[in-house]
Design goal:
Layout: H1 5-12, H2 18-23, E1 26-34, E2 37-47, E3 50-55, E4 65-75, E5 77-78, H3 101-105, H4 108-123, H5 128-140, E6 144-147, E7 168-169, E8 186-189, H6 199-210, E9 216-221, H7 229-232, H8 234-240, E10 248-252, H9 258-267, E11 270-273, H10 275-282, H11 288-294, E12 297-300, H12 312-326, H13 333-338, H14 342-347, E13 365-368, H15 375-383, H16 387-391, E14 397-402, E15 405-409, H17 411-416, E16 421-426, E17 429-434, H18 443-456
Parallel strand pairs: 1-4, 5-6, 6-7, 8-9, 9-10, 10-11, 11-12
Antiparallel strand pairs: 1-2, 2-3, 4-13, 13-14, 14-15, 15-17, 16-17
Helix pairs in contact: 5-18
Length: about 475
């Protein structure tokens, strides 16, 4: 994840010296999408990874780096549900639907086609940093600046330091709580049944929530059809362990009934919605209509790219289609984008740090081009900027900034900020990565090594973007 700016200069050999980084302001202008509306032609003043001020006029700051654009500037996406290490694999499309997640997890075809290959790849610890870099790039090209779920697959060993690079890892390293890895306040759990969580682990989570050391337990619950008996017991079991609390986010919740969703609301818990993967695996998704009516807080996240979306940008667009097709346009474009940004930040109790464009927030945001729109379309976007994400191509992402450091985007914008880059093709469009920020060296080398190793396992490296599918 993002390290403090001075540390990044040391770790990554940044061309920006410590003295320059400590004193040089970065000024970026654009159409700022704030909680209170769009500020046309607004300016962000960024120093030491934080948004110092937001203004309508360019700040008069000598020697500041300046980037003046007409882009829309959105807060970075906060992904509360992903299995990123599996995102190196190509899409997995089973020939039929399942009653619950245990059915496909235990299915020998899935085990042969994906799980066994993943175990072999992850068993070699030297592959971790290549996998980490590849899947974090896959996330950030879609505007994600915080993510959950990357793990070393060996809890007995500390997470490798490469986890500090690129996207903030909410359950391993964010930079929020000092320089140490694995000192975060968010936990990610695969489930509550005994096969996924033993009594000692449940007691640990319960105590951590009670003593205030754990802000959020994100846990898979009721990932199965409403008629599935195995999934139906999970909410009761979660409650029996005293883990259905305001510090709990229920991932999937496909099988929860309206009355169960009312219990979730009364407990102050929330749900994480992953519609694409749900439809691919079960033929239906969570009853978000009932959840919304009950007042349950809903976040949006991709799950994983084998059966879900490649990134948050694509999942928002898929959720929009579901809302329009099946839910009588229940969710507005603004609600869908906020379900991927400010809402999950609030659920994770990091909304004082990220999730909105506001003074005092960490500088985690991305720019979306408006140069390809007509005047009429541009006016519509000004009135409803969220449509740019719901209808635009992922290549419209011009720049992703994390902790005040431009990480990915249009090569010309990065070069204008004197950033050394590595070229990247996304959907046939020239993009670039900040080469000094890459945690395991040049991205081309990472992709090449992974490609060779996956080929040896009888599969191939999954693409960065959906255009290649």
């Amino acid at each position: 994840m993002r390290v403090p700016i001075l540390t990044l200069a040391i770790l990554c050999g940044s061309l920006i010296t410590q003295a320059q980084q400590a004193t040089q302001h970065l000024l970026i202008s654009g159409n700022l999408v704030t909680p209170d509306g769009v500020i046309p032609g607004g300016w962000l003043d960024i120093l030491n990874g934080r948004i110092l001020t937001i203004s309508r006029e360019r700040p008069e700051i000598p020697n500041a780096q300046t980037l003046e654009t007409n882009d829309l500037i959105f807060p970075g996406f906060v992904d509360l549900h992903n299995h990123p290490t599996f995102n190196v694999f190509p899409r997995w499309t089973p020939p039929h639907k399942f009653s619950n997640r245990y059915a496909w997890r235990d299915w020998d075809v899935y085990q042969q086609q994906l799980e066994s290959k993943a175990r072999t790849l992850f068993a070699d610890g030297s592959n971790f940093c290549d996998v980490d870099e590849y899947v974090e790039v896959k996330a950030l090209i879609g505007g994600t600046t915080s993510i959950i779920g990357i793990g070393s697959n060996n809890p007995a060993k500390p997470t490798p330091d490469c986890i500090r690079g690129l996207v903030r890892n909410l359950d391993h390293f964010t930079g929020f709580y000092g320089p140490q890895v694995d000192h975060e306040r968010i936990a990610n759990s695969i489930g509550i049944l005994p096969r996924d969580m033993d009594a000692m682990t449940a007691a640990h989570y319960r105590q951590s929530i009670a003593d205030g050391s754990l802000d959020l337990l994100a846990i898979h619950i009721a990932e199965g059809l409403p008629t599935d008996a195995e999934s139906a017991q999970e909410l009761d079991l979660l409650d029996a362990h005293n883990l259905l609390t305001a510090h709990t986010a229920l991932i999937h919740s496909v099988g929860l009934s309206p009355s169960q969703l009312a219990r979730v609301h009364r407990a102050g818990a929330s749900i994480v919605w992953s519609p694409r993967s749900n439809f691919e695996l079960y033929g239906r998704t969570a009853n978000v209509d009932a959840a919304f009516r009950e007042g349950v807080t809903i976040s949006l996240a991709p799950d994983w790219s084998p059966s879900g979306s490649d990134n948050m940008w694509e999942e928002i667009q898929y959720a929009h289609k579901v809302s329009t097709r099946d839910l009588n346009s229940l969710f507005s474009s603004r609600q869908l984008v906020e379900m991927a940004s400010s809402i999950p930040a609030r659920v994770a109790r990091i909304d004082d740090k990220t999730g909105t464009i506001a003074a005092g927030q960490l500088a985690d945001f991305f720019l979306v081009s408006s140069s390809s729109t007509s005047n009429q379309a541009s006016q519509t976007t000004q009135a409803n900027p969220y449509e740019a994400i719901l209808t635009g191509n992922i290549t419209a992402v011009d720049l992703v900034v994390i902790n005040g450091i431009p990480i990915y985007g249009d090569p010309k914008l990065l070069h204008s900020l004197n950033i050394a880059t590595e070229p990247l093709q996304i959907c046939g469009t020239e993009k670039a990565l900040n080469s000094a920020a890459l945690p395991n060296g040049p991205f081309a080398g990472v992709a090449s090594r992974l490609s060779q190793k996956l080929k040896a396992l009888g599969t191939e490296l999954g693409p960065l973007d959906s255009c290649q599918k």
